Amino acid sequence: MKSFDKSRQLFAEARQIFPGGVNSPVRAFKAVGGEPLFIERGEEAYLYDVDGNRYLDFVGSWGPMILGHAHPAVVASIVEAAKEGTSFGAPSRRETELGKAIRAAMPHLEMMRFVSSGTEAVMSALRLARAYTGREKIIKFEGGYHGHSDGLLSKSGSGLATLGIPESPGVPAAFAAETLTAAYNDLDSVEALFDRYPGQVAAVILEPVAANMGVVTPEPGFLEGLRELTRERGALLIFDEVITGFRVKRGGAVEKFGIVPDLTTMGKIIGGGLPVGAYGGRKEIMQLIAPSGPVYQAGTLSGNPLAMAAGLATLNELEKPGIYAALEDNAAALAYGISAAARKSGLSLQVNRIGSLMTVFFTSQEVTDYACAKTSDTEAFRIFHRTLLENGIYWPPSQFEAAFVSTALSHADVETTITAIEKAFAAVKEGRP
Ligand code: PMP
């Protein structure tokens, strides 16, 4: 058995200062019934906790660390930028460089604006969509997560799904009323909302590949249907690519599926592990943003030089030939190994995967939306998670999140992970961690 004494001690201290001992809810390991590990450092595919335990990391800071931890090129880029000063509150060249690098992969972001988190990116994109259309309602999907801004916290995925919080207190009812929710992969449910609120819907926002109810891929025709429907009804289509951007393909879900939204929100990978978000899209819409237009949005640390430097180095590494193919191979081998291990142990479960994003759902039912995801046996997941931790695998501490594969993961690491997963499935079968 591993020792977690130092983590336990640090958590006890942290609980005196931070609600629940953490600065973001899912980190508390509440759903898996344990206490969080305090991380000392990360290197390549590994995390090291304060008790000296080593883990293969499948959280990757929830997405940004696609190159693994402390990648030398990223670290060097941050250090170089830091020596020149950490923030100016004035334009600097790296902002344009990163903007150009993003636009090269995603030409539909004709113009963009950098912010400091995914939450801000989405909040700002929705304000813009409302201003552009002169309408107030938005449609989101059950189990989708778009950050914690007011109005986006109903029937959401991620930590809200993990902790069973369907609506957050503190959101004015008037705000919540402007958010309509449809079922993912169900075009009829979207059309019904457009019919019910004619001329009132400013935008449909979705994760083109859902990752915050666990990974759920769009069924053929779903994204196409949303594109047609939004165009027909005069609403904007917004892809929240905070997770999928530079992840499912270099050009994100747009490159993968060939459907182009009006606006896109980004985060995570484009900041290389530092706080960055972005929103962008058609020039005609983006030009409404101040100071070129009247829609106000600003940020003291927006376009921060260190964050831009980390993002630039990350995107630069991701340009190397064969990198996405290698990621795909490793993730496919892992998913295949997981399915084979499940069959061997006699467990009926679902491995949903797209590229380097995957979720193991403990349900016998195919998972195509949030209602299906919720049929998962979260007690089985808890045992799975705990056993993996004991065996040196840091898996996301929630059934309703994606696991992230990094380019630092080797073939040998995949084998190690599958061996640990076989043990975890045996534990699930026996009902003990
Ligand atoms: N959108 C999506 C799809 C996300 O996954 C997240 C965070 N996991 C956000 C928005 C919010 O980003 P942030 O946590 O940086 O505010």
From TrEMBL:
GO molecular function list: glutamate-1-semialdehyde 2,1-aminomutase activity; pyridoxal phosphate binding; transaminase activity
CDD domains reported for this sequence: OAT_like
Enzyme class: isomerase
Pathway(s) it belongs to: Porphyrin-containing compound metabolism; protoporphyrin-IX biosynthesis; 5-aminolevulinate from L-glutamyl-tRNA(Glu): step 2/2
GO cellular component entries: cytoplasm
Subcellular location: Cytoplasm
Biological process per Gene Ontology, one example term: protoporphyrinogen IX biosynthetic process
Cofactor requirement: pyridoxal 5'-phosphate
The protein's Enzyme Commission number: 5.4.3.8
Residues modified as N6-(pyridoxal phosphate)lysine: 268
Keywords: Cytoplasm, Isomerase, Porphyrin biosynthesis, Pyridoxal phosphate
InterPro entries in the cross-refs: 4pyrrol_synth_GluAld_NH2Trfase, Aminotrans_3, PyrdxlP-dep_Trfase, PyrdxlP-dep_Trfase_major, PyrdxlP-dep_Trfase_small
Reactions the enzyme catalyzes: (S)-4-amino-5-oxopentanoate = 5-aminolevulinate
HAMAP family: HemL_aminotrans_3
Entry similarity comment: Belongs to the class-III pyridoxal-phosphate-dependent aminotransferase family. HemL subfamily.
Oligomer and partners: Homodimer.
Identification of the protein by name: Glutamate-1-semialdehyde 2,1-aminomutase
